[in-house]
Amino acid sequence: MIRNYLKAGYPALCLLTQEPHRAEQVIRCEGWRFVAWDCVRGIRDLEGGVVIDDIRDPVEAIRWLDAAPDAILMAHNLHLFFEIPEVVQAIQNGVNRWKSIGSALLMISPSVRIPQELEKFFHLIDLPLPDTAAMLDIQREITGDLDIATNETTARLARGLTEFEAETAFAYALVKKGTFAPSVISDVKGQMIRKSGLMQFWEPAAIEDVGGLSALKDFIQRRAVAFTENGAAFPRPKGILLVGIPGTGKSLASKATASILGWPLIRLDLGALKNSLVGESERRMRQATRVIDAFGHAVIWMDEVEKAFAGTRSSGKSDGGTTAGMFGHFLTWMAETTASILVMATANDISKLPPEFMRAGRFDATFFVDLPCPDERRQIIEIMNRKWGSDIPLAYTDRLNGYTGAEIEQLAKDSLYDGLDDAFRNMVPLSRSMKEEVNGLREWARTRARIANTPEDRGVQRKIRREEVA
């Protein structure tokens, strides 16, 4: 992995990984002497694991390399000492010397934390996580002489875990299930989301709780084949944008998509990723997308994206370019990620979204979620009666023309306290209170988006009798 860099005489490398122990095993190559340093054990020879110099001080460890030709010093957690000026100076003093004697400083770090004084000296390298073959090897090592077959499905599912995480997950699966059960691995991978602190697991909604929207449901169900083993020939959808009137079921449909695909549902709150420290918001966004890539097989739900990305082009004046930086990374990630994920984004006010977000190819489809048609209103009434124990008669279908699903649900809840007639009389739907905005959104969607709703029944056509001509 690093052999060509060493042959080219790179004096300072930074290996980005959260697996320091695995790095010591897989990074070595012939032609150089590999030693490791940390502030507890000192300098160890990786060939035999013996401590060869009891140097705990980072400055002294760096200077040790000056007199070690053709040696690679793997420095663990050296980035934690960059606040010490002598450490920075020791590296600056050493790079020319190391280059002349064929040696290199290899810093092992989980993230990029290189001070400005040193960033031009270091070359960044990512240590890939274990692949499927490596996961199968871990399973074989755990089972040993036991008569337990390896499981390639579980090995693929475990991708994204570190070697240590995979080993403990496989062992736990054997203890709990007696086999390499995929369900246990999924639970363990859920820890990635919880530990990141950047996203949340949400319970997927049952598809039966979504009234109508048959066009959207059919679109998702037809494309679900692309995520199966038999769907390699199909292009995988990356994302769906749901635009519409507030309360029409966009968020509920996003949550139900996870049920259709049988995947976990992860909510990515872009507003919560923002931080007052310079560069921290962009770092948190990059970290969140890395966790999603490693997790794989998930529906990523982003609610009301226009609030997070509104005013992107002018963000340099208001927030130092933070929003623009997050926005740019998100768009690049959506285009480039190879993970099995589907982004479900919702928006109420389409005018606040930047043009780049809406261009063709960014999302696989943009759906407009309109006010429910009569058949959808009947379904929603039945769902709400079942959910809340209310008793709204189906005859109310016509009286609820212009009401959103959320308003029908509120009517069901209010009727339990005030009675149906009073609850209905006291409710003013958005289609009346914000008539101009609703009509404007409908006009926008007429030629710019697919319609998510169930096609409206046009009713029985009039029968025309024609007199026969004698």
UniProtKB/TrEMBL annotation:
<dbReference type="InterPro" id="IPR003593">
    <property type="entry name" value="AAA+_ATPase"/>
</dbReference>
<keyword id="KW-0067">ATP-binding</keyword>
<dbReference type="InterPro" id="IPR052381">
    <property type="entry name" value="AAA_domain_protein"/>
</dbReference>
<dbReference type="InterPro" id="IPR027417">
    <property type="entry name" value="P-loop_NTPase"/>
</dbReference>
<comment type="similarity">
    <text>Belongs to the AAA ATPase family. Highly divergent.</text>
</comment>
<dbReference type="GO" id="GO:0005524">
    <property type="term" value="F:ATP binding"/>
</dbReference>
<dbReference type="Pfam" id="PF00004">
    <property type="entry name" value="AAA"/>
</dbReference>
<keyword id="KW-0547">Nucleotide-binding</keyword>
<dbReference type="GO" id="GO:0016887">
    <property type="term" value="F:ATP hydrolysis activity"/>
</dbReference>
<dbReference type="InterPro" id="IPR003959">
    <property type="entry name" value="ATPase_AAA_core"/>
</dbReference>
<protein>
    <recommendedName>
        <fullName>Uncharacterized AAA domain-containing protein ycf46</fullName>
    </recommendedName>
</protein>
<feature type="domain" description="AAA+ ATPase">
    <location>
        <begin position="236"/>
        <end position="373"/>
    </location>
</feature>
